[in-house]
Amino acid sequence: YPNVGKSSLINSLKRSKAVGVGATPGFTTVMQEVHLDKKIRLLDCPGIVFSSQETTDSGLVLRNCVKLEQLVDPLAPVDVILRRCRPEHLMRLYAIPTFDDSTQFLEEVAKRRGKFSKGVPDYQAAARIVLQDWNSGRIPFFTTPPAELPGVDKHTAEIVTQWSKEFDIDSITDFEAAAIEALPGVDITEATSMD
User: Which residues pair with 116 in a beta bridge?
Assistant: First the structure.
């Protein structure tokens, strides 16, 4: 996903500014390779948004995939935020009274923040404030995990003594060597001695 801290994590691991970081979506535009040490290389790449049920424009805005400056209609995503978040949290955050719908909510936010256009509350500006707060994490939103997952017995936990086959590095190395060996004109000793 975009803006989850991929570049910041790489800079933290490198303990220097190895890649640029920014709070806007699309800051990282190309893939970059960063050498952490002589055996570890990290790739910093643009965020990828996987398709899901929520492929609406509002869903993409709330995932911070669209720059707010380029947003034509900021009102629709605010409706989604109001359906997701508890009104008490929003009332406390913006210091506004109770509201019945998104129009009234945006009107109160505009009044509180002094966003007026020709004496009328500027709903577009208020919506952009709310979306910026959503993207920066100021709006408290979380989903609680289910009490119990259906079909999962929580009493079957066990202590393992070895890695599962997916994490068996020897079998992965053997598989890769066999795949390289099967390539025409490739000598396995040359392919492995390049490091």
Answer: 121
- Per DSSP, the residues of the chain read -TTSSHHHHHHHHHTS--S---SSTT---S-EEEESSSS-EEEE--------S--SHHHHHHTT-S-GGG-S--HHHHHHHHHHS-HHHHHHHHT----SSHHHHHHHHHHHHT-EETTEE-HHHHHHHHHHHHHHT-S----PPPSS-TT--GGG----SS--GGG-HHHHHHHHHHHHHTSTT--HHHHHTT-
How confident is the model over 138-178, as pLDDT tens digits?
Answer: 998 777 777 777 777 767 777 777 777 677 778 878 888 88
Instruction: Please state the pTM of the whole predicted model.
Output: 0.59
From 101, 93, 179, 83, select the one nearest 130 (Cα to Cα): 93
Read off the tokens for 189.
């000793």
